[in-house]
Amino acid sequence: MRVVIIEDEWGPQEILKRLISEYDPLIQIDAVIDSVRNSIVYFKNKPEIDLVFMDIHLSDGISFDIFDEVNIDQPIIFITAYDQYAIKAFKHNSVDYLLKPLIKTELFEALNKFKAFPPLPNITKDLVNQVICQINEAKPSFRKSFLIQSKDNLIPILIDDILAFFVDLGVVKCYTRDHKMYVLSLTLDQIENEVDSAQFFRVNRQYILQMESIKQMNIYFNGKLKIKTICHFDEDIVVSKQKAIALKKWFSS
Description:
It is a single chain. 28% of the residues lie in helices and 30% in strands. The protein contains 7 helices and 17 strands. It has helices spanning 10-23, 36-44, 88-91, 104-116, 125-137, 188-194, 241-251; strands spanning 2-6, 28-33, 51-55, 57-58, 61-62, 76-80, 97-99, 145-150, 153-158, 162-168, 171-176, 181-183, 200-202, 207-210, 214-219, 225-229, 237-239. The model has no long low-confidence stretch (mean pLDDT 85).
């Protein structure tokens, strides 16, 4: 089976690729596309694929804009951070959907459903317009706070008070504006999927930074970046060449 992933965020891309491979190592990912424009170019070449994973909000617009330019004959599993009511129309049209943060069991169930009863999409412009209206009225569901246990106390921490999430000796912690650190019971992958990507960026395997935490970015060797933050970390944060390109784009948006 050959699939294509349409998703503009590196973290969800990697998570989806990993879970697809875990479900069936023989599934071939034909392409990973990050924009409406590149998706249109891709489907105009009529690729021989079996299934499409498609995020709703892409870097240059809403993925439904793709249907105005090309016909997509393959079944589509939509991936979205929006609540269920925003995409009810697709449920009645035999096109499955997954809500972010992505859950392995739900992805596996969607793939099992596809393999057992391949859906036949019937995506009309009226249907697309109906769902666009619903999505425009919906609000993305991002985490607003954490309830952190410290000894016998439960401490509420608002997301707006957090400057960074990081791994310290295998333990995930958050760093707050008042320069305090708290242990979290989540992984960085889980946190990345639950926070607003307009505010937080996963710069490497160890750090997710809030935009205001970045004090300075220095050019490092081989296209890498070295980041200085307003947090009292023991050392600078190094960003790979690939992530540096995405980071600069995110920071300038």
